[in-house]
Amino acid sequence: SDATVFYNGAELSCAELDDQVFTEDGITMGSDKCLTSQELYSATCCIDPPQDPCNLCRSGDNDLPLKSDFKVVSMTGETETCLEVSQSLLSQREQSSWQCRSSQKELQAKCCDGGTYDDSDANESHDYNNAPVPTPGVNWSPLGVDEPAAGYPSDGFYYA
Predict the structure, then answer these.
(1) CA 39 – CA 121 distance, rounded (Å)
(2) pLDDT tens per residue, range 41-56
(3) Beta bridge partners of 10
(4) Which end of the chain has less Cβ packing within 10 Å, N or C?
């Protein structure tokens, strides 16, 4: 995330706050400093865990085995393992979210044993026939926003 906070007069990204401040200062879970930091920074740097987490390998009512080490390349050119994509979706997205559905549609055949996307339990359908196609190299991720722009395609986030 690109979210930033101020810590001791310096503007830091949430990742920098975690990596540089909490780790280097040895702030431990449950300590007074940790609890104070949670109060100050959680609204900006944390997301609420999903109630029904996105399972990349869920197809209809079946949970397929994950091919953990298989690698995919995102539109931004980053190589990620299927395990990394799956963990990100599980920790950040609802099963019913468009990010989950589009990632399942595109990656199940690559990342899940026996994977073929089954959207029979999808609550809504979209017409993307004339939608613009994402351009490779654009800093955009299916995990980065809550809803797609109107008419945005539901696939094209990853390359094999």
Answers:
(1) 38
(2) 888 888 778 999 999 9
(3) 7
(4) C
